[in-house]
Design a protein that fits this description.
Number of strands: 11
Shape: globular
Number of helices: 18
Strand order of the largest sheet: 1-2-3-4
Helix content: 40-55%
Largest sheet: 4 strands, antiparallel
Order of helices and strands: HEEEEHEHHHHEEHHHEHEEEHHHHHHHH
Strand content: 15-25%
């Protein structure tokens, strides 16, 4: 099943598009197309490897697209996965011709900020927003310069610097955000304007240079007066700038982010609600940082709110708050510091006599192990979020959407050994989604132990597929 809505006016065009592609398949034996009561259907028969016969049905509705397979011969799960990817790519290639313009508002936002965010602020914010293992690696590079002045004291100076950054990370994260979400400015309003890709390019030429003026006019006519956003205001405002759209092409979404964080913070037994800041970018994401729950902050992108429903947003935020509760930023920094000091003061003096090859080999092994251990913390945060929300499938659904947006297809659901050993603190998406879909939270006695054993088992299973 694909979470793709097919408007009635698009149904015939989609089926015709798929027919044209399928007709070019030399292994096609049968093909039929029909539309009955708003439901579009394509039925076809193909032969796959070994001459095995497979019947496939693609069923498209205004809510979703379903794909059915039937065969009297044996077809394994991996072959079905490959077929899934081929069909999904075929379907999504049609919808890639459609684009969306997102406009983000809050009741007390400043459309024209008094000072623009400078490049330095963006760099600082991006570093803090990123993973602390990467921050640590950046500090090491800085250390090479520092070494020219302080020599063997340099590692200790760098360690002190990184912990100082961590202590004030909850304040620094504000440099990256557009505005804070607070109790008296608790909701985020997102309007999505859908259009054809060619129209989108033309509209951007008109809209982008004047986007602040357009947003201010919409804001002044709605939220500034205590009214909700509505399509009519968008249509009338856009028309002034030569942009024409229909009411059905505009979707408006409102989410009270502050209440979600407040509710979860209570469940995690936080004494203080973390600082919440919003970054106005499309990729759906969230991150949390802080030395402790009392000195923490969470950052949310507007894309997360735009693409996820409320349950999914809540699950993602619960995952991030689990990191804060368990002091994962401090744990990761401590692990990275231990590895760094051990390498500088113990390992390098021993292996340096054997040449550069062994230095590089040690770095590869140590960093791979460090990122693998970091995967335990991410897997545990998934479990904690599932326990707190009592809804593991919501987090699985959000991860699946993130995967689809990033990869444009279901390739992330294929088992890949390389995903386990690459320098990424997150376990492979396919593993995280599978665990959450099948999870029985009543069987979790200790989420950390459960996460460690699960990651090790997942890694071993990937070796069998390799």
């Amino acid at each position: 099943m694909l979470d793709i809505k097919v408007p009635s006016e698009e149904l015939s065009g989609l089926l015709d598009y798929l027919i044209r592609i399928l007709e070019r398949n030399p292994n096609l034996h049968y093909l039929n197309r029909s539309i009955i009561e708003g439901i579009g259907m394509i039925q076809y028969r193909i032969s796959i490897m070994g001459g095995r016969i497979l019947d496939i049905v693609i069923k498209a509705t205004s809510e979703k697209i379903e794909i059915y397979y039937y065969s009297e011969e044996r077809i394994n799960e991996r072959e079905y996965r490959i077929l899934d990817l081929e069909i999904e790519n075929m379907i999504r290639s049609y919808f890639r011709e459609t684009s969306s313009l997102f406009l983000v508002f809050s009741p007390k936002m400043d459309i024209f900020p008094k000072r623009e965010e400078n490049r330095f602020k963006k760099i600082i914010g991006s570093i803090v927003f990123g993973n602390f293992l990467y921050l640590f690696m950046l500090i090491i590079i800085f250390g090479i310069i520092l070494y020219q002045f302080f020599e063997m004291m340099t590692p200790l100076i760098l360690v002190a610097l990184q912990f100082l950054i961590l202590i004030f990370a909850h304040k620094l994260i504000g440099y990256r955000g557009e505005f804070d979400i607070t109790e008296d400015n608790s909701t985020i309003h997102i309007a999505e304007v859908k259009m054809r890709a060619k129209e989108f390019e033309e509209i951007l030429k008109i809209c982008y240079p004047k986007i602040k003026e357009i947003k201010k006019e919409i804001y002044d006519a709605t939220l500034a007066l205590g009214r909700e956003l509505n399509p009519e205001v968008f249509i009338s405002t856009f028309s002034k700038y030569g942009i024409h759209c229909k009411p059905e092409s505009i979707e408006i979404k409102v989410l009270n982010i502050y209440k979600i964080v407040e509710r979860l913070a209570s469940k995690f037994k936080f004494k203080k609600i973390p600082r919440i800041t919003l970054v106005n970018i499309i990729p759906p994401n969230a991150a949390a940082t802080g030395f402790s729950p009392n000195r923490s902050a969470i950052m949310i992108t507007s894309g997360l709110i735009a693409y996820m429903n409320e349950e999914e947003v809540e699950a993602v935020i619960a995952h991030e708050l689990s990191h804060v509760k368990a002091r994962d930023p401090l744990v990761l920094m401590s692990l990275a510091t231990f590895e760094y000091l051990t390498r500088v003061y113990i390992v390098w003096p021993i292996i340096s006599r054997f040449g550069l090859f062994f230095d590089i080999l040690y770095l590869l092994i140590s960093f791979t192990l460090l990122f693998f251990v970091a995967k335990f913390l991410e897997a545990r945060a998934d479990l904690d979020a599932a326990i707190i929300t009592k809804n593991p499938k919501a987090l699985a659904s959000s991860l699946r959407k993130i995967g689809l947006i990033k990869y444009q297809n279901l390739s992330f659901e294929l088992v890949n050994f390389g995903d386990w050993i690459k320098w990424d603190p997150h376990p492979p998406l396919y593993y995280r989604i599978k665990v959450l879909r099948e999870l029985d939270i009543s069987k979790i006695k200790n989420s950390m132990i459960f996460a460690i054993l699960g990651c090790i088992k997942g890694f071993i299973n990937s070796l069998r597929e390799f």
